[in-house]
Amino acid sequence: MAAGTLPRLLIDVFSIVLIDLLLAGDNALVIALAVRMMAPEQRKVAIRLGAAASVVLRVVLTILAARLLGVDYLNLMGGVFVIWIAVRVLSDASAPPPVPEARGRLLDAVWLIVVADITMSTDNVLAVAGAARGSVPLIVFGLCVSIPFVIFSSDLIARLMDRYPAVLYFGAAILGRVGAEMIFTDGLVVRTFHPSETLIYAAEGVSILGVLAVGRFLSVRAREKASVPVEALHGR
Fold this sequence. Notes:
The protein is mostly helical.
């Protein structure tokens, strides 16, 4: 082994792991929101399956990271999808406590996790690809190391949402910000509108308020619809 090879390898490994830990927070949050309405046991299964599938796909994307730089609409579509997830979970906020779900619900949650994780992972993919210097073994190692962190964080956040409902709104607000940032940093949007930093901050604020307002409205409307049959029965 050439002199300096081992220290460089250790530095690269440490850099990749640190990047994964720093950039995985948003991914853990979206996973927690996706599985919030599931029963505890199915929630664990969905988190593990979704996280594992996402990492496998991320390995492939990281190896092809150079091509991602020229893909328009990736961040744009991903941002819209993330905002939709935030509104969806808030609209379900008034739903009854989770009960055991059918297999279709589990597969739906896994699909949601995978798509959301991949669309939000461009920064992870490009950062890891740069730190790995094109080494496929390093890419695979770094991304696999992130699995336990994402799984633990997702389960912890989901539990906090069950216990403290305010965390749900805080998480949805974060996703609203992330979604707006993804939209306004998409290659096509940047070339077409040349958004300033101030405009991006303003768009993030509008997105946060919009997610909270629309999600709250849909939640209240769902609660009112659910109470109609009960009131009708009492009126008989």
